């Protein structure tokens, strides 16, 4: 049965978390307070070298009274 090792999955999770943090920081710089419709793409461009890309829409959400 094929699969990936625990270390591989940990690195993938770390890359995902870094991508989310980058989206969060960029959204805050734009004046947004939320990001919606987040999508992740992963690519293995060389054996063992993975790229995680995250996309989302920065928005400013206001509480409705």
| Distance linking N and C termini | 55 Å
Structural class estimated from helices and strands: alpha+beta
User: What is the helix fraction of residues, given as a range?
Assistant: 25-40%
Determine the oligomeric state from the structure.
Answer: single chain
- The arrangement of helices and strands along the chain is HEE
Describe the sheet with the most strands. 2 strands, antiparallel
Molecular shape: elongated
Polypeptide structure, described:
The protein is of the alpha+beta class and 65 residues long. It has one domain. Helices cover 37% and strands 37% of the residues. The protein is built from 1 helix and 2 strands, in the order αββ. A two-stranded antiparallel sheet has the order 1-2. β1 (34-46) and β2 (49-59) form a beta hairpin. The longest helix is centred in the N-terminal third of the chain and has 24 residues, at 6-29. The relative contact order is 0.21. The mean pLDDT is 89.
In short:
The protein contains one helix and two strands. With 65 residues, the chain is of the alpha+beta class.
